[in-house]
Amino acid sequence: MNNDHQQGGAWVLTDVTLIIKGSELDPDEVTKELDIQPTAVRPPGPDRWGPPGEVDGQWRLQCNEHSTRILSEQLDTILTAAESRSNKLKAFLLEGFKVTLTIGGYADSDSQIILSPAELSRVARLGIPLILAPSLSER
Question: pLDDT of 83-101, one tens digit each?
Fold first, then answer.
């Protein structure tokens, strides 16, 4: 019996998104405070496209396959924008907003995502949660 285990491939169609959410979130104020143009915003209230009961306002800065298909480049783009604003991001957390860095992509059951130690250090220095959100659905 062969005990060798083949590692799965990397996630595909990845995206990296800085998300700020809250029931009292004013996306225009976040844009003004961070001095970054978001890729998407949504004011608080019912969201006809989102999950039932989703009412939080959202501010998003996303880098996906339309910019680059390379995860490390996507992550660098978002981290570069966020690092100089880490104190403001932490202030949003203290105000009760949910601030996260989310990495999404399509994955098979044995797929992997590889982040370098330097990338993980950069994420950790931001002081906000990192969420890995694989989609296991068929593409």
Answer: 999 999 999 999 999 999 9
Q: Are 104 and 60 in contact (CB under 8 A)?
A: no
- Integer distance in angstroms from the first to the last C-alpha of the chain? 33
Token reading at 30: 């976040």
Model confidence pLDDT, tens digit, residues 116-130: 999 999 999 999 999
- What does the block give as tokens for 124? 């950790």
